[in-house]
Amino acid sequence: MGRPGQFPCTRTTRLLLECGAVVDAVDDRHRTPLHIALISYQMVPDERAQWSESLCGVVCELLGRGAHVDATDYSGVTPLIAAIGGPAETLIRSAINPRLKCLAAAALADATAVFRPAEVPRDLHAFLAMHGVHPAK
Ligand SMILES: [Zn+2]
Known about the structure:
The protein is built from seven helices and two strands. By secondary structure, the protein is mainly alpha-helical. It starts with 9 loop residues before the first helix and ends with a strand. InterPro entries: Ankyrin_rpt-contain_sf.
């Protein structure tokens, strides 16, 4: 149980997900909710003891809904990187269970490949971008 209004909040996260929030939605820096939760924790030097439990709760909710620990933001940071040294590192590591399509996307990203949107099925665009493969300009 956290203080009212405390962030990150496990119950709020669960409620949002149950209401259809997209677990891998990205912001303008291409960060997913998993990124945001982990990076926010890094940015509060105080009160970390109170935060760590709720952070782990939120991370569990997101992982339980299939959040990708290998999603890549515009700086190349993944939730896995953001979790290092924090209370959720073990949780994140235990979720490394690469899906074949994630590995394929990672290989493309490593090769700094881009894709032509017209030649790739539309439902793969966000997936590729989330893994660091961006549309050709
Ligand atoms: Zn993935």
